[in-house]
Amino acid sequence: MNDDARTNIGTPTPATTSSDETELREQVARTREELGQTVEALASKTDVKAQAKEKAAAVKEQAADKAALVSGQIREKAGRAAQLLKDKTPDPVREKTARAAVQVRQSAARAGQYAADKTPDPLLEKAGRAATAARANRTPLIVLGTALSVFLLVRRSRGRRR
Fold first, then answer.
1. What are the DSSP calls for 19-84, one per residue?
2. CB distance 98 to 91 below 8 Å
3. What pLDDT does residue 5 have?
4. b/e for 72-83, b at 16 or more Cβ within 10 A?
5. For residues 50 and 44, is the Cβ–Cβ distance under 8 A?
6. Does pTM top 0.90 for this prediction?
7. For residue range 40-50, what is the model confidence (pLDDT) as tens digits?
8. CA angle 76, 80, 90 (to 5 degrees)
C-alpha cells in the first residue's frame, strides 16, 4: 500500500460519480436509521421497570376479567338455585315464611325502638358515631372480621386435635 492510498482515505476518487455519492449517503442515512431503531429496541428490552409495570398491568387486567367472569357465573348459579328452591317450596310454606318474616321485622323494629327509648343520650351519640365510622370503613372491617374468623376457626380446630 502506498502513501497516497493512506492519505486519501475518505476522499472521493475521480472514478466515483455524484450518483454513487448520493447512493452512499442514502445508504448511510438508512443504516443510521436502522441503527437508531435497533438501539431503541435494545433499550426497551433492558428497561426492567417498564416491563414489570406492563406485566403488572396485564396481570391486573386478566384478574379483573376473571373476577368479572366468575362473579357473573356465581350470580347466575345463585339465581338458578333460588328459582329452583322457590319452585320446589310449596305455597303454604312460602306464605307462612312471608308472614314470619313480617313478624320478625316488626318485632325487631319494636325492640330497636324500645332500646332507643331506654338508652341514655350520650350512649346513643357514641353508637351513632361508631355506626357512621363502620359504614365509612366497611372494607377494612370486613377484612378484619374475616381474618378474625379464620384465626378462631384454625385455633378451634387445633384445640380439638390435642
1. HHHHHHHHHHHHHHHHHHHHHHHHHHHH-HHHHHHHHHHHHHHHHHHHHHHHHHHHHHHHHHHHHH
2. no
3. 53
4. eeeeeeeeeeee
5. yes
6. no
7. 888 877 777 87
8. 155
pLDDT at residue number 155: 86
Q: What is the CA radius of gyration of the chain?
A: 39
- N-term to C-term CA, the chain: 95
Cα–Cα distance for residue pair 44/89, rounded to 1 Å: 64
In the prediction, which pLDDT does 27 show? 93
Q: Is 131:124 a contact under the CB 8 Å cutoff? A: no
C-alpha distances (whole Å) from 57 to each of 43, 68, 69, 70, 154 are 20, 16, 18, 20, 35
In this predicted structure, the answer to whether residue 1 has a pLDDT above a threshold of 80 is: no
Query: Do 116 and 124 meet the contact criterion of CB atoms below 8 Å apart?
Result: yes
Residue at 89: amino acid letter:
T
pLDDT in tens, 101-148: 999 999 999 998 888 888 888 887 888 888 898 888 888 888 888 999
Q: Is 10 left (phi over 0), alpha (psi -120 to 50) or beta?
A: left
CB burial readout 144-161, b (16+ within 10 A) else e:
eeeeeeeeeeeeeeeeee
